[in-house]
Amino acid sequence: MNKINSIIYRITGFTFLAVAITVFVLIYLANTQMTELFKEYLVVQHMEMSQGDLMGQAGGQPLMTIMMGPLEHTFLASVHQSLIWVGLGILAAGLAASYALARSITVPLRNLSRAAEQIEKGNLGQTVLVETRDEIGHLAVIFNRMSQTLATNTKLRRQLLANIAHELRTPLAVIQGNLEGMIDGVIEPSPDQLSSLHEEAVRLNRLIKDLRDLSLAEVRQLALEKLPTDMNQLITRSLMKLKSLADEKQIKVSCTLADNLPEVVVDADRMSQVFDNILINAIRYSLCQGRVQVTTAMVGNRGHQWLKVAIEDNGPGIPPDDLPYVFDHFYRGDKSRDRKSGGSGIGLAIVKQLVENHGGQVNVESIVGVGSIFNVLLPAGPAAKPMV
To answer: Domain 227-379 - what CATH class?
Structure first.
């Protein structure tokens, strides 16, 4: 760092200059006033001693001429010298104080600068020591939070790319292997084989479509055809579509739908996608002969009305360490990403983005060994604001 342009010297110089000007002005005024006041003191003393013999009258005012001797000059000189020494002491203290003040500001800034340079070089996760609770300390706290967020986002981005590659590689490998076998004559192109290849192609196409919808939803570019919609009817249709999936595991699906719910302005197809994804997860992770409970209700918060849809299951629950990440891209509790234990891992990410694009909010509550509750909150009026 160029010390000539260092802010520590500028702050020290400006502060010391202000102190120096103040001290010089005070010394000058003190010296001037001291001389005049001392002369007036000598006049008064002389008048009292002579009892008015040397007093003249001119316009009703006394006049007096006093000649100061060597003792008086010596006294004034000693006072002036004392003031000069006091001024020099104040200047020295001011210089030290201004330098200490400048260091208290610039040293934390230099630490922040060094940490930022390390981040620029790719060494993420840098933090600085927070020593104060002033603006500099607040800046350090924000920097540490930003650094950790940047490191986390970079890690998630790398994981996202790896997960995308994994999800695309699996169906492509199946399709490629079967086609190569058919070309070599090892596999006979039977209807069953062709049907299997078609399923893999459909799954691959669905994954690509979900990725596209997710990317558009994140930048608020996904087209939504919002119309007044009866949410109870929408949920009922979703449950009917998934009845066969629930029956396979003998899962009991029950509803407690509130009466006289107001219509909510949403894109019905997109909201069906939201409930389908949550219900599929609830059914998939529930134990055989388990239960899934769906409830709707109106709730109020900060003077606004919200329509709440809660989907509860009695599955294994979500561990506390996984709970903050269930809505992240490709996040799955099963790190092996076995397809028997779940889908691609972007269903809940799409749920979150679609709900937020409708001005709502989605959250999850879960207890390991008890089950999970997914809460979808949709604004029941145009003036509603996101709940906290």
So the answer is: alpha beta
Q: How far apart are CA 92 and CA 139, in angstroms?
A: 32
Cβ atoms < 10 Å from Cβ of 267? 19
Angle, CA of 182, 187 and 192, to the nearest 5°: 100
Name the CATH topology of 151-218: Helix Hairpins (1.10.287)
Greatest alpha-carbon pair distance for the chain in Å reads 143
CB-CB contact of 218 with 353 (8 Å): yes
Distance CA 109, CA 118 (A): 14
Residue 162, pLDDT score: 76
Give tens-digit pLDDT for 301-320: 767 789 999 999 988 888 88
| DSSP codes joined into one string, 349-384 | HHHHHHHHHTT-EEEEEEETTTEEEEEEEEESSTT-
Give me the residues of the chain with pLDDT under 50, please.
1-5, 52-64, 336-337, 341, 383-388
Using CA atoms, how far apart are residues 287 and 257, in angstroms rounded to an integer?
A: 24
What is residue 375's predicted lDDT score, i.e. its pLDDT?
94
| Angle (deg, nearest 10), helices 191-218 and 135-184 | 160
| Every domain of the chain and the residues it spans | 7-53+65-123, 151-218, 227-379
Query: How far apart, in whole angstroms, are the C-alpha atoms of residue 143 and residue 149?
Result: 10
Across the chain, the runs of DSSP E, i.e. the strands, are 56-58, 61-63, 227-229, 252-256, 264-266, 291-301, 304-313, 361-367, 371-379
Backbone phi, psi, residue 288, to 5°: -60, 140
Closest C-alpha to 373, from 309, 305, 289, 306: 309
Residue 328: how many other CB atoms lie within 10 Å: 17
Give me the pLDDT at residue 29, please. Answer: 73
